[in-house]
Amino acid sequence: MWAKLCRWCKNGRAGRKTEAAERQEFVVALAGNPNTGKSTIFNALTGLHQHTGNWPGKTVARFQGRYRFKNRVYKLVDLPGTYSLFVNSAEEQVARDFLCFQKPAAVIVVVNAGCLERNLNLVLQIMEITPRVVVCVNLLDEARRKNIRIDLPKLEHELGAPVVGTVARQGRGLKNLQQTVEDLLLGRVEPRPRLPVYDDALEKEIAGLLTMFSNRADLAVNPRWFALRLLEGDASVLGQAERSRVFVQEPELQAKQQETKKMWYEFKAP
Amino acid sequence: MRTFVTEQERAGRQGDCRDRIVKALYLKAETIAHNVVSEKKGQGPDWEGKIDDFLTSRFWGFLTMVLLLGAIFWVTITGANYPSEAIAHFLCGLEGKLLSFLQLAGAPSWVRGILVLGTYRTLAWVIAVMLPPMAIFFPLFTFLEDLGYLPRVAFNLDYLFKKSGACGKQALTMCMGFGCNAAGVISCRIIDSPRERLIAVLTNNFVPCNGRFPLLIVLANLFFAGAAGGRAGSIIPVGVVVGLTVFGVLVTLFVSSLLTRTILKGVPSQFALELPPFRLPQPGRILINSLRNRTLFVLARAVVVAAPAGLIVWLMANVFVGEVTLLQAAAGFLDPFARGLGLDGFILMAFILGLPANEIVLPLLLMAYLSSGAMLELDSLPALKELLVSNGWTWLTALNVMLFSLLHFPCSTTLLTIFKETGSKKWLFISFLLPTLLAVAVIFMVTQGVRLLSLV
Question: N or C, which end of chain B has less CB nearby within 10 Å?
Fold first, then answer.
């Protein structure tokens, strides 16, 4: 395995993973809708040959590989393609759990330039989990052929997250993508995510829950996101949260969780 | 603070909250997209849409599928003959040299037997018979896959799978099964309903995988090539292989609907399948994927399993139990049952010993025939046919072997994967028993039918 990765060891390392490299390693997740070319980007960056197939649902498990950029090692994790992060399917569960609980240092969200609107749903959902998002607008060549133009600086402004345009199959824009990821990780780019705002009633409930979380320094997931999942009664997140010691002890919250759990089970088993 | 909430209210509240969240997300996405995307419409015809309409229409879609499949097999069958011949000739020539070399080196005859007649010969046949068809078939198949044709196939078949009570996504997992059934079983994870996933897992085996295509192609070529020979002569074997593949799909549908009506009852669930745009595949990637990841992978697996299996068969052929060899005794034991099915004891034993990998069934069979007397100089495909015919094969035997290969129990890797995916011994057992019983029933009926009509 490691022999394959030697091609990045330009500075004469004997190809063995040193402890220093291990410590420096940044975990970067690769998320996106099916068929946006995630695996192509993964292969192009890591030099591995994960099989790419032109059909949705190809990557069920996650794949990982490493790349080296400016003397830093990045561990790239290719997540299964999903349309959303509401846990409706195995792929969504895998992708969501990784983003929430494995805490990647950054997330590259690959979107298809040809159908940006649909892809943006996932971008917004991921930005609710973590602000450290780089949006990679891929397949620009295909979009151009369909006479679709995208104003990337404007998109960057609208989202409040760095945006990079790529044509991964031809390797265009990948250096820029790596550079942007580095900039984000080193704090040269400050993300100012502009998250979706919900209706007043919902926002009030969220605010209520957030005050309950406020003294919980050890809440390991994004509080706003967690509050939203509690509100919609997504018990799948509770199990994970308990396992990752996010479990909340306040009696009132526990009641809320109990209720959510009950709702979930009743919903699941009609 | 506990309030009483009725169940509907609870479910309703969840749905309601989720709906409001989703709505807000969509609205935001729409606004952003509206602000940043500019689209010029009405320039030139929508070719992709037109092609898709054609490829997914009820009639033309199916016809295109069958014709494409036929074209691929035709290229494979006509193209594989010559290199197969050449490789067989080369490797068998090497066998003689290897033997005389070992003799010079003073190796005892049993060592020569084990190394050359047992291991080397099986390996040589695995390579000669399987490498050329694979090296042609896999790049073509990968081309279609990378082009984006598979989702269209899934789209076409979705209707049929729905009708048989299974999930339309099963069409995709089935397509994966053409590559490797173990991979096909793993890909069943994309099916969300446990019931439908089980159906897909249990029926994945009915499409021929990489390991079984070579056997189908070789046998079809040997026993069904027309008298005309040449290019025209390969139409019939192509028809046979396409027919078998289509039959495999039909069996998949039939068993799926059988399962939904009996042990896995339920209503098929809905899902959305996006037809991805056609993308021109990258030639380099296709070659790497198909040759390294598929051809060499399958070949390596076959070699790794075939070497020890060849050894076992050689030993069985040389260990005597009373008057006869162990091999003959075992084959003789299976023979009465196998004859009734239109096979023979050796064939059945090759299938049983081939459990670790379907790739080695044919080589094992050759080994068994070769070591049980008929010592032919096996260096060409006609010689291969001669060997089979001298062991009593007719076109019916060949057809039965192909059908049995298509329908019989999954290989051990697939079985292991099924066990891992379902986590239950019960489903493992069913996944073994169901195809086996079906295979036995089908070839029994075919044999009896053909004999009744005295076609052989």
Answer: N
- How far, in Å, CA of A32 to CA of A119, rounded? 8
Tell if the CB–CB gap between A149 and B289 is shorter than 8 Å: no
Sort out which chain A residues have CB atoms less than 8 A from B146's CB and list them.
52-54
Query: Taking the domains of chain B in order of start, what are their residue ranges?
Result: 51-266+281-452
Q: How far apart are CA A93 and CA B2, in angstroms?
A: 31
Query: Which pLDDT does position B435 carry in this prediction?
Result: 94
Any A CB within 8 A of B152 CB: no
Distances (CA, A) of A231 to B17, B44, B89, B333: 7, 48, 72, 68
- What gap in Å lies between CA A234 and CA A228, rounded to an integer? 9
A192 domain-assigned: no
Q: Is this complex's ipTM strictly greater than 0.85?
A: no
Q: What CA–CA distance (Å, rounded) separates B183 from B178?
A: 9
Give the residue with greater pLDDT, B456 vs A27: A27
| Cβ-nearest to A55 among B10, B41, B276 | B276
B187 and A57 in contact by Cβ < 8 A? yes
Residue among A89, A90, A117 minimizing CB distance to B29: A117
Instruction: Count A/B contacts: CB-CB distance under 8 Å.
Output: 147
Taking CB atoms and an 8 Å limit, are B10 and A263 in contact across chains?
A: yes
Distance between first and last Cα of chain A: 48
Comparing B229 with A140, the larger pLDDT belongs to A140
pLDDT in tens, A114-173: 888 889 999 999 999 999 999 999 989 888 888 888 999 999 999 999 999 999 888 899
Query: B177-199 pLDDT, tens per residue?
Result: 877 788 788 778 777 778 888 99
| Rounded (to 5) percent helix, strand, coil in chain B | 75, 0, 20
User: CA of A184, closest CA in chain B: separation in Å?
Assistant: 22
Q: Using N-to-C axis directions, what is the helix angle for B7-36 and A200-213, rounded to 10°?
A: 100
Backbone φ and ψ of B312, nearest 5°: -65, -45
Number of domains, chain A? 2
In which domain, by residue range, is A120 found? 2-185
Q: Please tell me whether residues A9 and A112 are part of one structural domain.
A: yes
